[in-house]
Amino acid sequence: MPAKSKAQQKAAGAALAAKRGDQKVGDLKGASKSMYKSMSETQLDELASTKRKGKPEHAAKK
């Protein structure tokens, strides 16, 4: 499941860093905090490693 926006990718990267112990969990806010709680390290890695080229900064709301 690739990231739909740059913001989603950044949030996944922050959550992944916390899962791996490179960042404090207490420093997470908003989407990255919920991603940390609800997603596995493998899922976060997949989102964070998505190519950024052609992605919007934020995904369009439905």
Counted beta strands = 0
Poorly predicted regions: none
- Tell me the strand percentage band: under 5%
- What composes the largest sheet? none
Distance between the termini: 18 Å
Mean pLDDT over the full residue set: 91
Considering the chains and any ligands shown, give keywords for the structure.
single chain, 62 residues, mainly alpha, 3 helices, 52% helix, globular
Report a brief summary of the structure.
The protein has 62 residues and is mainly α. It contains three helices and no strands.
Give an overview of the whole structure.
The structure is a single chain. The chain is mainly α and 62 residues long. The chain is 52% helix and 0% strand. The chain is built from three helices and no strands. The two termini are 18 Å apart.
SSE arrangement:
Blueprint (H helix, E strand, L loop, with lengths): L5 H15 L9 H9 L2 H8 L14
